[in-house]
Amino acid sequence: MSEAAHHRPTGLSRWLFTTNHKDIGTMYLIFAFMMAIIGALMSLVIRAELFEPGLQLVDPNFFNQMTTVHALVMVFGFIMPAFVGLANWMIPMMIGAPDMALPRLNNWSFWLLPPAATLLIISLFVPGGGPAAGWTLYPPLSIQGGMGMDFTILTVHMLGISSILGSINIIATILNMRAPGMNLMKMPLFVWTWLITAFLLLASIPVFAGAVTMLLTDRHFGTQFFDAAGGGDPVLFQHIFWFFGHPEVYILVLPAFGVISQVIPTFARKPLFGYSSMVFATAAIAFLSFIVWAHHMYTVGMPMAGELFFMYATMLIAVPTGVKVFNWVATMWQGSMTFETPMLFAIATVFTFTMGGVTGLMLALTPVDFQYHDTYFVVAHFHYVIVGGSVLGLFTAVYYWLPKWTGHMYSEGIGKLHFWLTMIGINLTFFPQHFSGLAGMPRRIPDYALQFAEFNMWSTYGAFLAVFSQLIFFYLVWKTVKGGTKATDQVWEGAEGLEWTVPSPAPYHTFETPPKVS
Amino acid sequence: MSTANGGYYLPEPSPWPVIMSSGLFITALGFILQINGYAPGPWLMLVGGAIIVYIMFRWFGQVIAESEAGIYNDQVDMSFRLGMGWFIFSEVMFFAAFFGALFYVRVFSVEWLAATDMLWPEFDGLWPTAGPGPDALKAIAAGTEPGPGQFSPMGAWGIPAINTAILLTSGATVTAAHWALKKDNRGSLVFWMAITSLLGIVFLSLQAYEYAHAWTELDLTMSAGVYGATFYMLTGFHGFHVTMGTIMLIVILVRSMKGHFKPDQHFGFEGVAWYWHFVDVVWLGLFIFVYWF
Amino acid sequence: MLTTCLKRIKSTIQFLGTGLMLLPGMVLAEYALNFQAPATEIAREVFELHSLILKIVIVIFIAVFAVMFYSIFAHRKSRGHKAANFHESTTVEVIWTIIPFIILVSMAIPSTATLLKMDNTSGSEMTVKIVGYQWKWQYEYLDHDISFFSTLSTPRAQIENKEKKGENYLLEVDNHLVLPVGKKIRFVLTANDVIHAWWVPQLAIKKDAIPGYINEMWTKIDEPGIYRGQCAELCGKDHGFMPIVVEAVSQEDFNKWVSLQKDKAVSAAADSNKVWTKTALMKQGKKVYEKSCQACHGATGAGVPGAFPAITGSKIATGPVKDHLDMVMNGKAGTAMQAFKGQLSDADLAAVVTFERNGLGNKAGDIIQPSQVKALR
Ligand code: HEA
Ligand code: HEA
Ligand code: CUA
Ligand SMILES: [Cu+2]
Asked: In chain A, at which end, N or C, are there fewer CB atoms within 10 A of the end residue's CB?
């Protein structure tokens, strides 16, 4: 059936009503970008307040709101949607499908996000202000808050529906829409990591929804799940939250691992080392991620058996993750490497992620975590894995596939400039936080003792550099969308996979007839 | 209509999802205003709810029409199956959160509270409990109220046992309907679907009666400590799912009467049957852990 | 071959280790880089554990990335390197699964030992109950019948940058937790409103204080000195402003301190029997207000709209005395407004209520005597 034969709405309704995976993917990415900017501006409020000791810009209550909403926006508004956007764009192209399996549902998954984000943003403007209990929403603090907390809870519900529907769609697509010959162990790793991520989402997001529902009824309907006077326990919330929360952090990073596993072989001009062990490692990480949650709660006073079990289980995660890192390095080994921007970002992702990974391992050891817990050492850890893993992974993906999406090559010069400024920025921001954390600076405080002053100053400079460097990225993407050198079908010399066999930009329905995979 | 890959149906752009989201947004906003005591709350909820219901009619209506027009091939059918199956899985995890909470309070927290004499000297930690708080303890001391707090727990062998039987039976009747459909025996299909829907309605009515009884006569409210909280949360969400399931059964009943479904292709029917079985299994968990032990 | 290799690794570890140990000493003058000096045996063990794993992970990190950067340098297309085509080797996969596993086991063993030691509160010679409040700590010496609150004492002016910040900015309190050295002290922890966490880095103890539940931990301090810490769990607006100061003293000094506290309690009791003048009440009330109430209701009594009500013009603070006293003494369940009857003396309560009714822009005109408060207890 020919392209021209069916009419497609244009203008706004094209975007509102679309059932096309590429349009939806684009919307996800734009939405994620907008959220990233909002979240980054909030992080600048945090950093500016922390520039020097004393209260300068915001009052402590607002500071707490910024911390909370920064995290929620970044995690649920930026990283997760950005990866779903990539999944939308790339999975059908990579497995030789015409579109996602359930296109109307796909559109709904996306269009749940803007209203959800709106609810969260509105919360900042209602009496009492936004949620100020940290993104972990621990009761009883979260029970004290004003109606901003209710907005947050409903936001979580809507985002949750979106994630669940999105995951269902991804699973159905991967399991049901592969081109003939594309058996599971031939799928590109990006597809594999997303398949496993989708399972993580399905198993963890509903649990989070349950947790905030109990919070809501404790707040407004007289239940006492988290109140000792009624036989409940505040720590119960923490268990449920982290049962979701720990898998969540792998949800944030596994798709990035997938991206890296696509990009490194391309620029090393050498097949990925240990394909099947990569798949098993991903599955092992996913499995383990469900039995380590209480490593966030070593200080709540669990029974000793619990402390030990969660310590050992957490440490185990280093093994499959290590396998992945080693496989990437082995893929580069003896390759014939070139260093276009995506490759730079991919290498940087491996490097910075591992840095966050090894501090994660330090946190896993219970007796020392008593010292690290709730300090900037933890903040440094998770920004290294998230910004250094997920965000850099996203940039890798965008640079890698942008020519395929737009049909134009981006400017390498500007790309590399963006790369280096971002790298300097984020490392300057987060590296010193290791030290302030070790020296005893608690997290989530708007003001601090004098001995932490220098490193906080560096951190603030770094944050401003990191955030403003993103203007370059915006400019680059804008320019590439508008025009530029025509991209070839294959784009990268070493690129392999179905997505590189179709024209750049890819046609509206990529594979009207299924390709054959040998 | 556009198809590809040897006939995989790819729908045209659709307005339903965005409107559905707006409906949800308005409902959510209304709900928040309502629980915080702002006047327009209920009205917004009403408007939002109306939008949601309307869109469900249109959206599902379209899917049904497409299905009856025979444009869904086997591969599309498979996508729906996967979709429904994993959706039910996510629902299982939703209930897992509440079962987890129940498990945690019963096995850990209540016992720990009983052991902390420094804070709660009089509390003995028997289940069911309304907790060691001052209100609950006063009631125990006065000895005026039956049971271990200010309420009586819900027994297992009255209505809950009857409801168990009802749901189990309905699981069997929906299977009978399925067999009938496969044999293309329309009369039998409609009959068993009607019975199944009826059983759903009876279940709900009995549960409504049970709630009224608990609330007014047993003093078992949502504020009755963790017992009340877990009881209402689990049975309440289950009841909500039964309501949804019953509506779905009725839709299937109506469609059966209209002659929808083919003996070899009737995913709409099967999806609802799966859902109904899921609701059934969750109930067994409830019966055992909430009512019985 | 293997032995030289091992030797090399060992010397690298030592090299890095000494480097890391030196770092904090070298630049401590300006930059706090590492853990604060441990002050107990447990804290030393934790510090050693920390140093050990830090060294291990640094070595691993360097090893992995040395390989990667070598490859980046040597196996680049611009140097004419041709790509090999290997992409699988079960042997190496097994090796790099097993070696990390062994390293992990070697970290887990000492960690387990230390953890078990930290958990063992038996044989303690003294117990202190710590209760977290928004935003202060209460210390109760269960064996000595002493109990008091400990609140931030850094002046507002320093926080608001109107005054030069003192040396212990944000890490100073009005009442120190005084403890004897060389004794195993058990802490039992709980909280009154939300979760807090009691943490003193140099003692290497941190535990959550959870409302309705009791947690335990212990310490045995080596040397007399001042050890400072902070609340380490987000507990609302002033979470950053509820420090902890432990003053470790010799047993003798501790005994002296204990009898001093008993004398203070006697004079406080005398205060509540006395009749106060309005000026005295207002003066004392202002002090109490600034210490206990200002954090929420604001210096001028304006509150924080939507979160904390204003006192200025408040119906309760200008209405019947009984309701006002009831609100302050018993708090309001489910809100941040806590019950102050256990925290403040009769005199302080009378003073602060008088102050709220006649200061902060209110003009109720009446005064409250400590005896009125006492009658309501
Ligand atoms: C993308 C997100 C992400 C990822 C991937 C990780 C990965 C890991 N995290 Fe992290 N973590 C977070 C996000 C993430 N984390 C967040 C957001 C928080 C804070 C939440 C909050 O409180 O707000 C947190 C907090 C956190 C804590 C709680 C700290 C505290 O509050 O006290 C702990 C404790 O165990 C921990 C451990 C780990 C471990 C062991 C890994 C492992 O998966 C890392 C494994 C990787 C490696 C180890 C490196 C590569 C391996 C090798 C090179 C092999 C050889 C290595 C060895 C044998 C050492 N994390
Ligand atoms: C996804 C997660 C994410 C991301 C990206 C970030 C990014 C940043 N965060 Fe993060 N932060 C969290 C998650 C994240 N954070 C969490 C979970 C917490 C804990 C909250 C709590 O305690 O409750 C936290 C807390 C936190 C704190 C501690 C606050 C406190 O304890 O009081 C600080 C302080 O410096 C901080 C700073 C920053 C800075 C400077 C950045 C900078 O890196 C910002 C620079 C921006 C970028 C690098 C993004 C660029 C991306 C784009 C421009 C989009 C590209 C788009 C596509 C590819 C589609 N954050
Ligand atoms: Cu108390 Cu933080
Ligand atoms: Cu975790």
From this structure: C
CA dist., res. C214 & res. C193, Å (int):
14
CATH number at residue C108: 1.10.287.90
Identify whether C13 is part of a domain: no
- Ligand 2 centroid, distance to C257 Cα (angstroms): 48
Domain that holds residue A459: 21-500
CA-CA distance, C143 to B185, in Å (whole number)?
83
**Predicted local distance difference test score (pLDDT) of residue B6:** 59
**Catalytic annotation present for A239:** no
Residues above pLDDT 90, as percent of chain A: 83
Interface of A with B in 128-147 (CB under 8 A): 147
Tell me if chain A has a CB within 8 Å of the CB of B34: no
Neighbours of A3 (CB within 10 A): 11
Determine how many CB atoms are found less than 10 A away from the CB of residue C374.
15
Q: Kindly report the three-state secondary structure assignment for every residue of A229-263.
A: HHCCCHHHHHHHHHHHHHHHHHHHHHHHHHHHHHH
Contacts with A59 (C-beta within 8 Å, 6 or more apart), sequence order: A446, C237, C304
Rounded to 5°, the CA angle C185-C191-C194 comes to 145
By the CB < 8 Å criterion, does B60 face chain A? no
Percent of chain C with pLDDT over 90: 44
| Catalytic residue flag (residue A23) | no
**Helices in A177-233 by DSSP H: which ranges?**
189-220
> Is A13 an active-site residue?
no
Structural domain that includes position C206: 126-160+170-267
Q: Write the burial class of residue C50 (CB in 10 Å: 0-12 exposed, 13-18 middle, 19+ buried).
A: buried
**C102 and C216 assigned to the same domain:** no
Q: How many domains does chain A have?
A: 1
Assigned domain for C33 exists: no
Please state the domain count of chain C.
Answer: 3
Is the ipTM higher than 0.85? The answer is: yes
Closest C-alpha to A81, from A7, A4, A24: A24
Helices (H), A75-147: 80-95, 103-111, 113-123, 141-144
Last residue of a domain, one of C267, C288, C309: C267
Which position among A178, A246, A270, A383 bears the catalytic label?
A246
Per-residue pLDDT of chain B (293 residues; tens, 9 = 90+): 444 445 788 888 899 999 999 999 999 999 999 999 888 889 999 999 999 999 999 999 999 888 888 888 888 989 999 999 999 999 999 999 999 999 999 999 999 988 888 888 878 888 888 888 776 666 666 654 434 456 777 777 888 899 999 999 999 999 999 999 999 889 999 999 999 999 999 999 999 998 888 888 777 888 888 988 999 999 999 999 999 999 999 999 999 998 888 888 889 999 999 999 999 999 999 999 988 88
Pocket test for ligand 1, best of A361, A394, A430 (most atoms within 8 A of CB): A361
In a domain, A512, yes or no: no
Residue bearing tokens 């996203």: A394
Catalytic residue among A23, A49, A99, A150: A99
Residue A220 bears catalytic tag: no
Residue C248 is given by DSSP the state E
**Interface contact B113-C212, CB threshold 8 A:** yes
Interface of C with B (CB under 8 A): 129, 188, 190, 212-214
Measured CA to CA, the distance from residue A461 to residue A31 in angstroms comes to 27
**CATH code of A54's domain:** 1.20.210.10
In Å, how far from its chain's centre is CA B288? 17
